[in-house]
Specification:
By secondary structure, the protein is of the alpha+beta class. It contains 18 helices and 12 strands. β2 and β3 form a beta hairpin. The two termini are 70 Å apart.
């Protein structure tokens, strides 16, 4: 049976059910209707309360980016405790504190990437405070709008350095049960972090260029001083005061020979004071002469033979073949530090979209990466030309380039800039090119040559190149004797390399050839002679070989950030990843601490 509401008076007593007088009808609104009215407080049955017990909750519920339901209790968050504790220190309205962090006081959450804000209600005044749980920053001081969270910038740096694109990053976050981020927002974070990485990498490469140039010029000057030490000693080593010798040239010769200790006059029996001489010192680039009893003055002799430094240069494409849309060039010093990077693009995604979907309209303002018109093969020379121009403009010119056998860059430097740059071939490229011709000979099936023979010839070529650096005649003689030696003809061999010449009375065994006997096929010998004839003709170019292995390592690191099966080349993403590679090679992982 449903309960019957009986009317009560002001004292709480039941009133009669008779007809109410007219004068009592005005007071009827003040009567209590509830049967058991033990309290008159507000009772709220909502999950987070209502607008009465939590002022401003309706605005939070209406906000599109703020979650007020039970979703705020699900998943994991990345929380910086110091920031959260400082935000909970006091209420922004009544200044009472600290705020309590509980399921009842947390009314909503606004997620911003991996960070966000908690809306915590004050238990004293009921005000809802917005408390961040991550460190914030603004790109420009005084900039309008909400600041960005540092952890989101770090997220963009992780995309550039390790993870990859937005889809890969969201897969990674979902695996850790962290909140996923919209792909467009991830690209915004990547651009913000990429600009910081680019700035740091450019400054770092400029500093490394200055250090490499100064160090190499000092080394070259020291080598020049060592080679000319005798002439410097004769000209500057001993200063003789003529008054002490009374015009006797024999005394000067004795002093220069080091056999003179005490000078005496021929017509005097009393001893004379020794000759005043300046100490002879060895000149090694920097001459240390005592300017006083406590300090030493350093005199730096500039190099006369060299005006530029040595770099290793190599170009790589993001796609195999000669139709790649992008490419990059690295210039690396002798101490394996990246000095300059240049990235070339043949297209821009934003420009293509506007021309395809909005023909005739003005393209919106953006960072256009399209900087190359021409074939992919021309990228190498153009990128190298631009890199060397920038190096010269900043006061660190390049005089020697170590790289592969492509001389297009050298020719363009001489014709367009008037620069005479020396090219040193890379040892590994030279050996690989020769071995490639040997494998092509095997695949042609014209003659029979096994892998064992090719590996033995490869070992011999490496040995010849290594032991004859700086020896033009020795390089040519060893290359001429290489093929006859394999066929038992030792007439052109030298004892330094040939065991038959060193021990002619013993039976010589070719330990690396099949069956340990010399080769016999005349057709194979004719083919090998044809292959090595052009190599012997340009043997002078092999006496000063360089190494571009540092560039190969840089290209490998770039491939880890820009895989060849993914296309990053139509936006600035490729530039960010190449610059991140340069910063990683120069500074290691600590360069990421500069991204805030």
């Amino acid at each position: 049976m449903a309960p019957v509401n009986r009317r009560r008076n002001k004292l709480g007593q039941f009133k009669s059910q008779l007809r109410i007088k007219a004068r009592d009808s005005e007071k009827a609104s003040n009567n209590v209707i509830e049967e058991h009215n033990y309290t008159s407080a507000h009772m709220c049955l909502g999950f987070n309360g209502c607008n009465v017990c939590c002022p401003g909750l309706n605005k939070l519920n209406a906000a599109r980016k703020i979650s007020t339901n039970d979703l705020i209790l699900k998943g994991r968050r990345i929380v910086e405790f110091r920031v959260l504790i400082e935000g909970l220190s006091n209420c922004a309205k009544c200044l009472c504190g600290p705020l309590y962090l509980s399921l009842q006081t947390v009314k909503a959450e606004m997620k911003v990437g991996l960070a966000g804000y908690l809306y915590v209600q004050c238990t004293y005044c009921g005000n809802v405070n917005r408390v961040p749980y991550g460190k914030k920053q603004k790109k420009v001081t005084g900039q309008r709008g909400m600041p960005s969270f540092c952890v989101n910038t770090k997220l963009g740096a992780a995309m550039i350095d390790s993870v990859g694109g937005p889809q890969r990053m969201n897969n990674f976050l979902a695996t850790l049960n962290l909140p996923t981020v919209n792909n467009k927002n991830l690209k915004v974070m990547e651009r913000r972090a990429g600009e910081m990485i680019e700035k740091f990498a450019d400054e770092n490469m400029a500093n490394e260029s200055q250090k490499a140039f100064i160090d190499e010029m000092r080394e070259v000057a020291a080598q020049e001083m060592d080679s000319n030490a005798d002439s410097f000693d004769k000209e500057l080593g001993v200063a003789i005061i003529e008054d002490e010798f009374k015009g006797d040239p024999s005394l000067i010769e004795k002093c220069n020979s080091g056999a003179f200790d005490l000078l005496t006059e021929s017509n005097s029996s009393s001893p004379q004071p020794p000759a005043k001489t300046m100490p002879v010192e060895k000149h090694v680039g920097v001459l240390n002469r005592p300017a006083s009893t406590k300090t030493k003055k350093k005199i730096i002799f500039p190099s006369k033979a060299r005006s530029g430094m040595t770099v290793a240069a190599d170009h790589a494409w993001q796609k195999r073949g000669y139709d790649s849309l992008t490419g990059h060039t690295f210039l690396i010093s002798k101490r394996n530090k990246v000095l300059k990077t240049v990235i070339k693009h043949r297209s821009c995604a934003t420009c293509k979209w506007w021309k395809r979907n909005r023909p005739g309209q003005r393209i919106r303002s953006h960072r256009c990466v399209w900087n190359h018109n021409g074939s992919a093969r021309m990228m190498e020379s153009e990128a190298g030309l631009l890199a060397l121009k920038e190096m010269s403009s900043q006061g660190t010119p390049v005089e020697i380039i170590e790289g592969d056998g492509d001389n297009t860059l050298i020719a363009r430097l001489k014709s367009q800039c008037g620069l005479s740059v020396v090219k040193r071939l890379d040892k590994n490229h030279c050996v690989k090119n020769i071995i490639k011709t040997l494998y092509d000979l095997r695949n042609s099936k014209v003659v029979k040559i096994s892998n064992q023979i090719i590996q033995h010839l490869s070992k011999c070529i490496k040995y010849i190149f290594s032991k004859n650096q700086g020896d033009k005649e020795g390089m040519r003689e060893n290359l001429v004797a290489l093929v006859p030696h394999q066929f038992g003809d030792h007439s052109k061999c030298h004892g330094r390399f040939c065991g038959y010449k060193r021990k002619p009375n013993e039976t010589y065994v070719h330990r690396s050839l099949p069956y340990k006997v010399p080769l016999q096929d005349p057709l194979l010998r004719q083919s090998l002679d044809d292959i090595f004839a052009p190599i012997i003709a340009k043997s002078a170019s092999y006496i000063e070989l360089g190494s571009s292995q540092a560039c190969e390592h840089a290209n490998r690191e770039t491939c880890l950030r820009v895989p060849k099966h993914l296309h990053y080349g139509e936006s600035e993403s490729l530039d960010f990843r190449v610059k991140a590679t340069a910063a990683f090679i120069n500074e290691g992982r600590k360069y990421l601490s500069e991204v805030k």
